[in-house]
Amino acid sequence: MRTLMTINIFLNVLFMNIPAHAKDFNLKWSEVRFFLSETTFANKDENLGALMQADQIEELNKVTGFGLEANAALSSWFKAGTKIKGVFNAANKKEAPFPATEYLAVQQYSAGLTGRLMLANKKNFNLDLFGELGLSNNTVELQTTGGKAKWDKNSHFYQRAGASVAAGGESFKVFVEGGYENFKLDNLKYEGTIGQNINEIDLSGSYVSVGLIISGLPSWIKPGGLSTGGN
Predict the structure, then answer these.
(1) Residue 207: CB partners within 8 Å, gap ≥ 6?
(2) What is the pLDDT of residues 93-129, one digit of tens each?
């Protein structure tokens, strides 16, 4: 968690310093995106599945996350920014009481830099291709009647790529984004009493996000000396 906090501080400092030089680079703050995202894992983990089978813990093949992305327009056809996202999902034993005593849980926090190539950049419609690079903290926990295990992978380098489309008004748009994210975790830190042989967990897969774009950021914040602009 300490590493991810350092990343967030670095990104905040970076984007706080951009306004001071905005006029030199003709930079215009463009948008902030709030979103809900669902990832479907590309590969089933047979080792985890074998540990879960005896307790009939349901398979966790999808995870849902929430996030925020802020972008600045470097030109009419390219936007750059930063994205943060959090995920916490769990699968319990079938017909388990609350709180469940047998479960599989995935927790993930990521922060990265994004680039968006604008194929269409209109007031009421956007279409883009994007790429993202960053670092993440990941935790997978398993508890069964036979024991428990916890696998951690911090400062993991991840990638996302895909496309998004947005439509609506000049200031507010609804968007849909689809792509693939790479979270293949190896060299895991392990503690527990079961699953000692598991040294790799793949959380990669295709994902779909839906959310809201607020354009013209930060017209309501008005940082000193920076002229705001829309798309």
Answers:
(1) 37, 38, 39, 40, 160, 162, 178, 179, 180, 181
(2) 777 677 778 899 999 999 999 999 999 999 899 999 9
Contacts of 96 (CB under 8 A, 6+ apart): 102, 103
CB 136 within 8 A of CB 159: no
Q: How far is CA 37 from the centre of its chain?
A: 8
The model's pTM is 0.80
> What three-state secondary structure class fits 99?
coil
Dihedral angle of Cα 110, 159, 205, 187, to the nearest 10 degrees: -70
As a whole number of angstroms, the distance between CA 225 and CA 59 comes to 53
- C-beta of residue 104 within 8 angstroms of C-beta of residue 67: no
* b/e burial code for range 108-122 (CB count within 10 A of at least 16 → b): bbbbbebbbebeebe
d(CA 176, CA 163): 9
Give, for 149, the enclosing helix (H) or strand (E): strand 147-168
**CA 105 distance to own-chain centroid:** 17
Q: Which two tokens stand for residue 211?
A: 């959310």
SS3 170: coil
Residue 70 identity: A
Distance of alpha carbon 130 from alpha carbon 148, whole angstroms = 39
